[in-house]
Every structure is written in C-alpha cells, then in structure tokens.
Predict the 3D structure of the following.
Amino acid sequence: MEYIRKFTLLTVVFIILIVACGLEPPIQNYNGSINGYIPADRSSDVLRTFGNDFNYETLLPVVIDFEFINSSKERIPEVVFSFLTSSGEIFFTAKSDDEGIFHGKVFLPSMAEDIILTIQHSDYNDRQVLLEDMVLYSEINRRFTLLVPDNVAMKLYNNPQDLNDSDGDGITDEQDAFPDDEKRAFLVRVPAEENLTLAYEDLFPRYDSQDPTKFFDADFNDFVVQYFIEEIYNADNELVEVKGNAKAVAKLAGYSHTFGMYFPFEALNAKLSVSYFSKTGRRIWGYKDKTVSDGANIVLFWNTKYALDEYSEFTLQFTEPLKRENFIDPPYDPYLLVLNTGYDIHMLGKDPLPNSKNPTETDEFKFRHPVNGMPWALNVPMNWEYPAELEHIENLYPAFKYWRESNGEYYPDWYLMKGIDPGPPSTGNNPPYPVTGPDQKPVFNAYTSADQYYQLEIQEVDDQKDPDGDVVYFRSSELPSYMKLDSEEGLVTILGDPLFAGPPKETMEVEFWSEDEQGADTKDEAYVVKFTLKSS
C-alpha cells in the first residue's frame, strides 16, 4: 500500500475547461434538458507549496474565489453553495454577494480528500462539482456557469422547498441551518468531522542547547484535549456567533494547568456563556451572558488536575455582526497556562496572552523549540491516539519525522500511520532505466595490439532512457587500467597490449549501472559482466 500522499513542489497556475455533464450530475430530481449545450467553467487553481515557514499545521487554509454566471455571461447574485466531505457531511455554507462573487477561506485536514461542492439557486439548475484532493491547493479560483431549466415552474413544482423561507432572511429553509431564526443562516464546523486534538509539552520555555530531549521528551501527552468549533453566520455571510466544545482527554504531566481559548477582536462587544460538565454529563456550574469586549479569554478547564474526561461548552454571541476577515482563523488560539510556572503555551506563530509573564526572548521563536524546532503544542485534525509516557512521537508515528524534515510536503497524513514506517519519501526524481548488454560472458584476446570493444545499452521505454527525461550516464565498479568506459556512450574499451600495464586477470566481473543527472541510479540492479581474457 502506498502511504505517500505527496504535495507538489511547484507553484502552478493553470487554466482548464471542465465538462460538467459527465462529472457533475444534478443533485435534484428535475430531469429537464439543459438547452442543448454544456456549461464551461473557468479554473485558475493554485497548487500548494512548502517552504521554511513550516508551522506544523495539519489544518490548512484554502482560499476560495468563486464567480457565478449564466449562459449569457451575466453574473448571478445570491447563489448558495456548500462544501461536503466525501462521506456527505456539510461543513461550510455561504452565499455569493449581489455581484455573484464570493471570496473567503475554508480549512481542511492535511490528508488528501475529495470534497463535494453543491451550488443552488432557485432560478437555475442545481450543480454538483467534485474537487479532487482539494487540500493540495492553496487557492480554488473558479467561474461557474449555471443554466436555466427549460421549465422553471416545473422545477419549482418538483422542488417546492426552493421557495420556502420561514424566517424571511432570503435563504430557503432547505439551505438554512436555522430556518426559524432570521439572524442566523449558515453554520461552519471546524473540523468537518470528529474533533481537533491538541497535545502539549509543558516545560516551556526550558531547554538544553546540548541535549534537545532534556525538558522536551516529545511524547506530547502532558495535556491532551479534543475540541470543535461552530461558526454561525447570518444571510449576509457575517459572523454572529461562535460555539465551542472541549473535552480533557489526558494529563500525564506532573504539572497542572488552566486550559482556555483566546479570541481577539477589537471595538466590539459580545456576550459569553460557559458551562462545565462532569464526565457523566452533569452540569457542574457555569455563567451566562457575561459581557466581554476587545477580545474574549475563555477558560474551559480551570485546573487540568481535576479535569480528566470532563468537558465544557461555550457560546460567544456578538452584539453586532462581524466580518469574517476580522476574526481569528482556525484552529484559533487555544492555550495552556502552566500553574506551576505561570507561563502560557500556544501553537506556533501565536502571541502570548495579554499581560503574560512569558520571557520576551520567546517572541523570537513564537513557541518553537529553539534546538529541535518542534512545537510545544501540536494540533491534529481528528480524534488522535497520543504516545505513551516517554514514548517519542516519532516512535509511534514514524512518518512524523519525514513530514517534519520535509516542511510538511511529504506524509501530510502521518497521524493516520500509527506504528507504520513508510520509509523515506521519494524526492520526486525517478531513477533511470537499467543497463543491459549483448553477452554477460564476453571473451577477448589478451595479447592483441588492437583495441577491443564491448557495447553496453540502457533499456528504453517509449524511446526514453529515464522516466523523467533526464540525461543518463553509464557507471561501473572499479576498472583495471587497461579497460575504459565511455560514460556517455556506454562503450567499454579493452586497450591493446594490456601486458604493458601489467598482467591481466584471466577473468574479471564488472558491475555496470545507470545514473541520471540528478544522482538517481540503478546500482541496486547492476548489470554484471564476466570478462574472460585468453592468451591465444
């Protein structure tokens, strides 16, 4: 089984025409024609690239730029679309603006997965589009063409839900996650399924420059929490409410902690409600409609020493709708405040809490270990089995090492490979085809004054000596002074009068292999030739 799900090395912007008939079956039962032609979509998606800014992210952003037009190339306003997982779970719904445009972001687990896009408008045929391995792209830029059914009245007759709008917010009941609430319309769940798992090392910021494992055993089990967030929007794609749920899964550290989430926002008030539950589901205590402004620091577990298997819930309701770009992106800013040291630990790139006692020099690496480069807080986009005490994460998840060393490019689904070592990733350069020759036991005259020759070849496939089209050279094991190899032509020359260079061996085995210009070779499948030199 192939476990490498490799992200591309190149930034590629490409234009393609997508034929919608075969790939996009209508999701409604209306069987009217599409006026004799198939809509053509325009795509200029951008493949994801990786570099030195690697932040151990397993929940990756994908920028969305959509435009919706009709067959006359006129923009269609207020088109509702949704993203679904391959199992059919809706995790994101939004609406285009009055100009038929939508710009925003979705966040997907780093493992490659096909995503289904549904597009709906009461005046047009519904569409369904398959976005293969969507997370491989940093941007999805599409222009979609929607077609008018032959008989709009018949479409509405067959699909009366296209007109029902119980709360009058302009979003039909079928598309509305809150059909009886005019202030709420769309729900975005992070992650789409299950939970995010956050695992901490809690000795921050201590380290030993000579021994990276001291104060950092990389078992990521000092405290482990699972959480999910729901973002709730009105019919104008404005954020009106954020809801969250967190469960304490493990605490294998001697230290105790407070766990919370920090949501920064400016010049805005909100009402915060939090409830705390025992492991049996009994509500222990909480508070409701607490006014917060200029950010919300939400404590979800006051002391992790007593929190195992307990859970908490919160609701952050804004007094005025908020533009999504003015709110923090997933996976947000959960933090662990270590009660024994007073330091707060965050994911890479985040800021310490306001009034934090963290040493200012930690700003230089923003919660990245200064020796091994690893994070003090690791986020995994699923319910994840954490390592045992003192078990290094790379022992339980060997692919984590390759993912880390490749800056996230290889094995982005390392967290699915418990106990599996897939081996070092391919660099993307395939080796050339192997060497062959006419006879593996050639016989030559040892005492002739004329040069003698043996011609090697490289096997070809489709007239290519290398699957990548690279320049290929011949290589060999050590040759005696009276034998020469032309590395470009593969011609082996046995020089005349070899006795001038010393008595030749009667028989000699030589290995030959191919090597491409990037260093990939076939030495492991070398072609072995047994040369025989006779005196007569």
User: Anything to note?
Assistant: The chain has a mean pLDDT of 87. Helices lie at 20-23, 152-158, 393-396, 399-405.
